[in-house]
User: Which sequence fits this backbone?
């Protein structure tokens, strides 16, 4: 492969600050001009997505886009860089932000939620931080945006402002800030000071494998700190914040806690494995085996927990933890196809899981129901929603012709490349578990007769702004399967 | 401008005299005169820093009364030396002083009836004393200026609420003990070296090899303990919370960011310029156990802060913990730790200023700083609350505030010198700070009382009347200093390298180890 060309371009920064302008507009419009406020959000999301997409041809052409914002330390710039995996992640997040904005309008208005201005404001900030992480070129830059994301999502998690929100918010921040301040920060500091005489930028492109200069024990400790420090990845035992964060309104759970925030976590872990340690160093300290075991354990345990959850959003949250495990597993497999599959799974899982959350929220808006056991017979009243739920479930399970199949396929291929049969077994078993905890939801809705005494007659589909996005993302699951070539190209897999 | 160092003192010193006289003319003049003289002093401070940076050996000197330095040992006379460190800290003192003076208008009118002239006069003298401590090059003159700052401080505190007199008395006793110990130490130094000039003392120590001398050891202990008392290092902190909580609002805004920080500067100055790095760290046993004392100090202060239910008291204990940070940064005996300490003096002054100004505004508007009284405050005073929490996030150490960068260097220092206990306690206290400030955010943001009972009717209803949540921002004269302080916290963070480069230039003259020395 020819070495990539570097292009200096301001577009990554524009994608980053568009939400800030959106924020300004949202605050100025305020609660009194709700329509204008939502149009502003919509415009911000569209502009961001357009800017991100406009970089696609350049990156597909084998180029890398860079832009330097400021100098953090003497030798460490805050540098934005757009490469394949980063652009893939940014595309997923920004396109789904458009869908989520439409969905939020239906959801928030349908439920007559309070403080919608605050909601949209911090939503915009979160997306800015997400872009920052996707386009970061070194560990310090990524750390800055990572912290920004933790803070800007806190008001969204505690949106309900009641006791439950307090508990959820405490768990959320407790886990995220503890890990990032007490595990990640020392690890960064350690690398900064000891490598290259205090000039280590930990650049993803330039400094891959330099961490191998440490002795082996240090490398293993650093691997542990980095893996667990990015608690947003939901790796057990640092996963409890995610079910706790489900107290947030569903658009937040959908975009942030199925796509943006959690994917930021796994994306950071991916960067560490692929671009800081690099496959060689990782194999040398056999750190990848530990990570694979941890990820596999996370996948299986969380799937088992998901089986026992009756609250639909909590069940989906544990499912997300499991699916994040796939991505870390893929990153840890340390083969090209495995890591490519991991990046691909970011997109595939995002599309499937956001559909599921959209559906859960639409059901809540239309009926006020939160529990799986309450859904009997709902398929007849809400055919579009439950149909989309079915499609989303099948995609997450990993059946063709849906997107989820492609990424699981490459994960399995990556595992076979290094003869790790047990990983393939884990993938199969967990797919089976996925079937057990996801399919019953749709099956209950379509094929179980409704309970007597409940007035299902009056239930209709949720308002159209809720239904259109979920239909769109459900169709997206098909589209990703058929147009996976471009994504494969971005994630660096040669089919 | 020539003699800018002298102007730093002339402005507030004469200003304070004019202010004191203004009560006989028109008491309304007191405020504008104070602000003007502080503005002048601040400008002189900027000028001094620029000159110090520009001069070839990075320091400028001013001999009071034009005596000569040519003797050996150096003669007796007052010398003001502004190297980069001194002028940097002095500039922070003057900047904080200027902002607090501007801010004080409404508070002073309300809290010190008919004594505005005296109050402003003491305030200017206080700032003169603190700036003098930073700039003086003479160990005895340092004592005088410490007392100037302390005596005016006692007065400023005693003007507060009913219990302020007792708090001030408490401070007076402990402060005097500290200052006396310091003075005693200086006496020993004079006996042994025959000079009071800081550079002179170090010259004699180095040329005569006095490192092993018992007299010097005793002097070091006396001065060290004296300074530790003055800086409220746990367990010598007892005076601080009472003094800051019962003092008039502006007094606490002025003293909290400055007094403890300036005393840490004195400690660094004594180590680097008077006793010398080698003597302080190699010939004494402080290096081996000071970090452990710091661990105890930070842990205890953190728990004390956690147990408070009132913003100002909580902040007071926070300062005690922060003092632990900085002392630790010095005594882990490492180049990076020392950079961290010096940088933390600067950033801590800014962020504590933010917090105390914010707390003062909250007190002004809500009549209380108790946790129960702040629910729904954000919709009432969004800018004030934002400014306050910029300071709070900086204390926690979240990027890109300046607190992140100073903590970064402290962590690095702890790692490089292998003092893991210091590193662990830094992490611990960071988490405590997270709890402290997010507990406040919860109290402001959520409709839940402490026991977890839901208030209001759900859907974001805080159970408050419209009156209580209506937009009602603080007056501009209070708001602007707060916002300036908050932006300074961010700006120092963004331009941290400019500051650190200056600190590094300063430290070139001293050979601090960059690797593990003490094990």
Assistant:
């Amino acid at each position: 492969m020819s070495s990539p060309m570097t292009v200096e371009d301001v577009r990554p920064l524009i994608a980053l600050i568009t939400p800030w302008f959106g924020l300004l507009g949202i605050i100025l419009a305020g609660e009194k001009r709700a329509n204008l406020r939502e149009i502003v959000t919509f415009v911000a999301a569209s502009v961001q997505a357009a800017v991100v997409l406009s970089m696609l041809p350049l990156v597909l052409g084998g180029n890398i886009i860079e832009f330097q914002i400021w100098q953090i330390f003497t030798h460490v710039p805050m540098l934005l860089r757009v490469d394949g995996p980063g652009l893939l992640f940014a595309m997923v997040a920004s396109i789904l932000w458009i869908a989520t904005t439409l969905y939020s309008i239906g959801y928030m208005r349908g439920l007559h939620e309070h403080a919608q201005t605050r909601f949209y404001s911090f939503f915009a900030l979160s997306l800015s931080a997400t872009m920052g992480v996707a386009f970061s070129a070194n560990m310090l830059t990524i750390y800055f945006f990572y912290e920004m994301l933790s803070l800007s999502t806190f008001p969204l998690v505690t949106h309900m402002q009641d006791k439950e929100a307090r508990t959820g918010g405490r768990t959320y921040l407790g886990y995220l800030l503890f890990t990032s301040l007490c595990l990640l920060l020392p690890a960064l500091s350690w690398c900064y000071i000891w490598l290259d005489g205090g000039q280590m930028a930990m650049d993803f492109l330039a400094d891959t494998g330099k961490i191998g200069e440490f002795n082996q024990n240090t490398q293993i400790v650093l691997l542990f700190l980095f893996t667990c420090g990015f608690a947003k990845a939901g790796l057990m035992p640092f996963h409890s914040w995610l079910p706790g964060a489900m107290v947030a309104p569903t658009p937040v759970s959908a975009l942030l806690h199925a796509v943006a925030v959690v994917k930021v976590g796994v994306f950071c872990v991916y960067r560490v494995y692929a671009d800081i340690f690099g496959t060689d160093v990782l194999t040398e300290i056999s750190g990848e085996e530990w990570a694979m075991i941890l990820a596999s354990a996370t996948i299986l345990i969380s799937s088992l927990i998901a089986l026992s959850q009756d609250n639909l959003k909590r069940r989906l949250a544990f499912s997300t933890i499991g699916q994040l495990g796939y991505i870390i597993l893929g990153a840890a497999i340390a083969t090209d196809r495995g890591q490519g599959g991991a990046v691909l799974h970011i997109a595939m899982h995002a599309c499937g899981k956001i559909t599921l959350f959209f559906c859960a929220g639409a059901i809540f808006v239309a009926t006020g129901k939160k529990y799986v056991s309450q859904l009997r017979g709902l398929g007849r009243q809400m055919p579009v929603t439950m149909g989309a739920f079915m499609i989303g479930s099948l995609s997450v399970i990993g059946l063709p012709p849906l997107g989820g199949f492609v990424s699981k396929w490459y994960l399995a291929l990556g595992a076979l490349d290094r003869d790790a049969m047990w990983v393939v077994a884990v993938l199969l078993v967990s797919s089976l578990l996925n079937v057990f905890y996801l399919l019953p939801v749709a099956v209950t809705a379509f094929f179980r007769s409704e309970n007597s005494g409940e007035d299902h007659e009056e239930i209709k589909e949720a308002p159209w702004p809720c239904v259109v996005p979920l239909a769109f993302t459900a169709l997206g699951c098909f589209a990703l399967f058929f147009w996976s070539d471009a994504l494969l190209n971005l994630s660096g897999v040669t089919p | 401008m020539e003699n800018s160092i002298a102007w730093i003192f002339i402005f507030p010193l004469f200003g304070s005299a004019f202010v004191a006289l203004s009560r006989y003319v028109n008491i309304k003049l007191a405020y504008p005169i104070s602000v003007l003289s502080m503005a002048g002093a601040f400008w002189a401070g900027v000028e001094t820093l620029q000159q110090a940076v520009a001069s070839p050996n990075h320091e400028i000197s001013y001999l009071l009364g034009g005596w000569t330095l040519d003797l050996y040992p150096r003669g007796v006379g007052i010398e003001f030396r502004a190297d980069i460190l001194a002028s940097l800290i002095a500039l922070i003192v003057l900047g904080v002083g200027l902002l607090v003076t501007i801010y004080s208008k409404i508070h002073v009118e309300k809290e010190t009836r008919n004594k505005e002239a005296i109050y402003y006069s003491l305030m200017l003298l206080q700032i003169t004393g603190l700036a003098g401590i930073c700039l003086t090059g003479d160990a005895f003159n340092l004592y005088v200026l410490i007392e100037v700052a302390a005596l005016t401080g006692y007065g400023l505190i005693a003007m507060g609420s009913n219990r302020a007199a007792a708090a001030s008395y408490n401070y007076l006793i402990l402060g005097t003990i500290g200052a006396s110990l310091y003075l005693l130490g200086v006496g020993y130094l004079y006996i042994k070296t025959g000079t009071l000039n800081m550079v002179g003392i170090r010259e004699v120590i180095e040329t005569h090899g006095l490192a092993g001398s018992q007299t010097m050891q005793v002097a070091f202990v006396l001065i060290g303990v004296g300074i530790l008392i003055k800086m409220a290092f746990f367990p010598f902190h007892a005076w601080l919370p009472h003094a800051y909580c019962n003092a008039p609002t502006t007094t606490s805004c002025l003293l909290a960011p400055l007094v403890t920080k300036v005393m840490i500067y004195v400690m660094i100055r004594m180590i680097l310029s008077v006793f010398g790095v080698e003597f302080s760290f190699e010939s004494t046993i402080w290096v081996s156990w000071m970090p452990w004392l710091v661990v105890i100090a930070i842990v205890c202060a953190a728990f004390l802060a956690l147990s408070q239910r009132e913003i100002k008291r909580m902040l007071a204990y926070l300062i005690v913990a922060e003092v632990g940070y900085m002392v630790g940064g010095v005594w882990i005996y490492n180049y990076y730790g020392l950079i961290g300490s010096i940088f933390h003096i600067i950033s801590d002054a800014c962020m504590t200023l933010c917090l105390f100004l914010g707390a003062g505004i909250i007190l002004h508007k809500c009549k209380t700083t108790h946790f129960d009284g702040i629910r729904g405050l954000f919709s009432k005073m969004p800018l004030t609350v934002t400014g306050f929490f910029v300071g709070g996030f900086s204390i926690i150490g979240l990027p890109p505030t300046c607190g992140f960068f100073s903590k970064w260097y402290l962590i690095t220092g702890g790692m490089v010198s292998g003092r893991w206990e210091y590193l662990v306690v830094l992490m611990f206290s960071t988490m405590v700070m997270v709890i402290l400030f997010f507990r406040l955010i919860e109290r402001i943001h959520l409709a839940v009382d402490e026991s977890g009972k839901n208030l209001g009717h759900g859907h974001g209803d805080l159970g408050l009347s419209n009156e209580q949540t209506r937009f009602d921002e603080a007056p501009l004269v209070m708001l602007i200093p707060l916002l300036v302080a908050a932006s300074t916290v961010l700006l120092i963070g963004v331009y941290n390298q400019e500051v650190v480069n200056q600190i590094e230039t300063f430290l070139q003259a001293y050979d601090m180890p960059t690797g593990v020395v003490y094990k």
